[in-house]
Specification:
single chain, 11 helices
């Protein structure tokens, strides 16, 4: 594996990083991603031209900005990760803790379920607006529930499973690289006039880094729910979704939960008709909790699989010896 870690080290370090996340959640002050965001804004303000000389120049400037933003922090993390083991172990643990967002997902999503269950639609709309980009000002309870379930399923991949995947593959350098690229995609990946060319590199690299994790996440959702429906929805519906990675994740998750997602949603004042995902019922408040439990069951399943592989490998070595 990358970063000089063996399977047992990945397992125990991942458990430690997740334990920190569950215990403390995201740092409330001085989060390194806030500083990284400021750095990215500074770089973008100097390299993103209002009228680049063409498609090639606009995209090349975005590539240069991506390398500049990611290069400095990645150099520091990589140097620390390849230090002696007793020094590197805390670096790996803290890197995963800072990159993963399991508790944050729970803290942002669960209150929306509680507000809908209490029939406090205004509060549910306000809380939902914090995690989705669509307009929820006039959304019905089912619209809010649908938006929240979609966000929970998609962010289960982006904030949790993809981070675990890249940590397993590359330790601290792998997970930090993923989180920085994912952050730049969120900042620069919008298809507006300002970012259409400049954000192309960040958006495409994020797609590449999420390709395998998204499909592992989709498979996880399907296996932990209605497997047949989840796999069938993934196969039949994912390609119709605009995002190549969100499509499999949400189609499989919706099918596994027996829910129908997608459909009409309002963005920036315009009503968009999105493809349907999943099959079954219209989401309600209780389905938000079901989606969260699916994500956290997936975390447990991933750790269990990694732990079993670790102990099986160790037992195999012992028998062979």
């Amino acid at each position: 594996m990358l970063a000089g870690l063996n399977l047992a080290e990945v397992f125990w370090l991942a458990c430690a990083g997740l334990a920190l996340d569950v215990a403390f959640g995201e740092p409330r002050r001085a989060h390194p991603l806030v500083a990284f965001g400021r750095l990215a804004d500074w770089i973008e303000s100097r390299l993103n031209r209002d009228a680049p000389g063409g498609v090639l120049e606009g995209r090349l400037l975005g590539v240069l900005a991506l390398l500049a933003a990611v290069g400095v922090p990645m150099s520091a993390v990589a140097a620390a990760a390849y230090a002696p083991a007793w020094m590197a172990a805390p670096v790996h643990v803290v890197a995963l803790y800072l990159a993963i967002g399991a508790k944050s997902l729970w803290l942002h999503v669960q209150p929306i379920e509680a507000a809908l269950a209490a029939e406090d639609l205004d509060r549910a709309r306000a809380l939902g607006a914090r995690i989705v980009t669509r307009d929820l000002h006039e959304a019905s309870p089912s619209d809010v529930a649908r938006a929240t379930v979609e966000s929970a399923l998609e962010n289960g991949n982006d904030a949790v499973f993809a981070a675990l995947f890249w940590f397993a593959l590359g330790g601290a350098p792998g997970v930090i690289a993923y989180r920085l690229v994912n952050t730049l995609d969120a900042m620069w990946g919008n298809k507006t006039a300002r970012y259409l060319l400049f954000g192309w590199a960040a958006a495409r690299l994020d797609d590449v880094m999420n390709f395998v994790p998204a499909r592992l996440t989709a498979l996880t959702y399907a296996l932990l729910g209605d497997t047949r429906t989840g796999l069938a929805c993934w196969r039949a519906q994912a390609r119709a979704w605009e995002s190549p990675n969100a499509g499999p994740v949400m189609a499989a998750g919706a099918g596994a939960l027996g829910l129908e997602l997608g459909g009409a949603a309002r963005y920036y004042g315009q009503l968009e008709q999105r493809p349907r995902l999943g099959a079954g019922n219209t989401p309600g408040a209780a389905d938000i909790g079901r989606a969260l439990r699916l994500v956290f069951a997936g975390i447990a399943a991933w750790l269990a699989a990694l732990g079993l592989a670790t102990f099986a490998l160790a037992a195999g070595w012992s028998v062979h010896a």
